Amino acid sequence: MNRRNILLGGVAVFGFSAWNMTSGSFFDASRLPGAANAQTADAEVDTSGIVEMVIGNPDSTVEIIEYASFTCPHCATFHAGPFKQLKKEYIDTGKIKFVYREVYFDRFGLWASLVARCGGQAKFFGIADMIYAGQSQWTRAGEPAAIVEELRKIGRLAGMDNDKLEACLQDGEKAQALVAWFQKNSEADDIDSTPSFVINGKKYSNMSYDDMKKIIDEALES
């Protein structure tokens, strides 16, 4: 699978294949306007520098990996409600280890990821909350340049200056590595929808908080 360099709104990103929830198949996002010629093959992409975003107890016997997209409305709903309960009852109390992995349906989700990761692991989850809270606004801002500016505003609210944000948004190598990392993870865990959860190695689709709580409690007791 090939990458294609895209430069839109002053932001360098790379085309990639992503899951199309409507058709239930993968589409080639490199066909988005502005795509250039294929440049780098998957095998050449180094993903070793991508940091896992983790909160909670790293030594817990229960690990939850969430696969989510910053442009996914169901993911925003999860983070507005169930995630807050999960954080209060299980993450902040040190009962579980929680890992967040981005899924990229489109370039906008990738740009959001670059902004969220710009503050490092310490700020990631706080910025992610802001991105999800404002999802209906920034995703509908209009042209790509307007969407990027809305994401910059979120970054500035999180305490980052313009120079830092531009450096993160212009980091094409990081963007390419994130896409390759996403593809590797999603294929390994057979992810075909968002949000999806891998709890102690077993995949689950989106569920109510009560159902998730039951699974977690059973895992803690085993």
UniProtKB/TrEMBL annotation:
Family that this chain belongs to: Belongs to the thioredoxin family. DsbA subfamily.
Organism: Sulfitobacter undariae
Stored InterPro entries: Thioredoxin-like_fold, Thioredoxin-like_sf, Thioredoxin_domain
Family annotation (SUPFAM superfamilies): Thioredoxin-like
GO MF term set: isomerase activity; oxidoreductase activity
Keywords attached to this entry: Disulfide bond, Isomerase, Oxidoreductase, Redox-active center, Signal
Protein name according to UniProt: Protein-disulfide isomerase
Domain of life the protein comes from: Bacteria
Entry annotated with the keyword Oxidoreductase: yes
Organism lineage string: Bacteria, Pseudomonadati, Pseudomonadota, Alphaproteobacteria, Rhodobacterales
